[in-house]
Specification:
Blueprint lengths: L3 E3 L2 E3 L3 E3 L9 H9 L3 E5 L14 H19 L3 E5 L7 H10 L4 E4 L19 E6 L2 H15 L6 E4 L5 E2 L14 H19 L5 E4 L5 H10 L4 E3 L1 H4 L8 H9 L5 E5 L5 E5 L2 H7 L25 H9 L23 H23 L1
Parallel strand pairs: 3-11, 4-5, 5-6, 6-7, 7-8, 8-10
Antiparallel strand pairs: 1-2, 9-13, 12-13
Helix pairs in contact: 1-2, 2-3, 4-5, 6-11
Amino acid sequence: MNKLSIGNLLAKVPIIQGGMAVGISKSGLASAVANAGGIGVIATAGIAHLADDLSSNFIEANNRIFAEEIRKAKSLTRGIIGANIMSALSNYAALAKVAIKEGIDIIFSGAGLPLSLPSFLPEGNTSTKLVPIVSSAKALMLIARRWISKFNYVPDAVVIEGPLAGGHLGFRKDNIFNEEYSLEKLVPDVLSQAKTLEDKYGKPVPVIPAGGIYTGADIHKFIKMGASGVQMATRFVATYECDASSEIKNAYIKANKEDIIIIESPVGMPGRAIHNHFLDDVASGHKKPFKCPYHCITTCDFKKAPYCIANALCNATEGNISEGFAFAGQNVWRVDKIVHVSELIQSLNDEYDEAEKNDLNNSR
């Protein structure tokens, strides 16, 4: 596979491990992916879910644990380490500042429009790259215009995430399975807008498709379209190095195609998850009362929410999946075993090579 360049960063393989929050992708998984030549990503939402002082000192607890995870990842690899920071987080600014202070290589930011992200970079800081995660070319241009006009900053790359991704989705529920919103339809427009930015400002803006990408052949397809690399998340959960609980990994392995469902998240967005009894209870209207000592997601109205999604995801991360659930991408049902990250990267590389050979043969 080709290498992936984002500014002065060079990944040996064009794969970014997607950020999976609440304890799924921390230093263990991120460093393993970086060591295998990809870009490893620490997800920040819920990163301090085990901290004793979380309720009493929400921002400080998250800052402390996040900094520790960055340092640990850096001690385990010389590769590229990024952070996924959702713009909808109430402690967004604090986490962004920690990432930059600790020397994170890249910040990936979505779940809303990260319009203020460049404001956290100290003047002259060029070591931390800033990459928005969008669901359309329109969103890319809106973000780019704001970054350029207000901060004189052109995005270092862009992740275009399609509707087959796991977790919270940036699409209306009725568009998730609409072919007009498929990743294959979204990528060309984003490539065009990225080229416009490159031509106008003289800075490459690599395009990184995400959402439902599963095989090396998928990677080959999007790179052939003009993408510079891909982002993958679901495949990395079923690895020995992933920080998720064994219960979540087993849920991935056991999932059937019909188990993948779209839910209405308390934070106001649709999400893709693996069906279980907890989600049945929620769908049946069995409210699970809770108190909210912190307002972790700005779009969540906990007084009206049927359950606390942070608690549900924390429970699953800690192995108590009956009191929570697992987010997953549309293709999770294809996962059938746990492998090492290095094995996964090698198999994707082999599949990519095979797809390239087939493409060459078909063109003769």
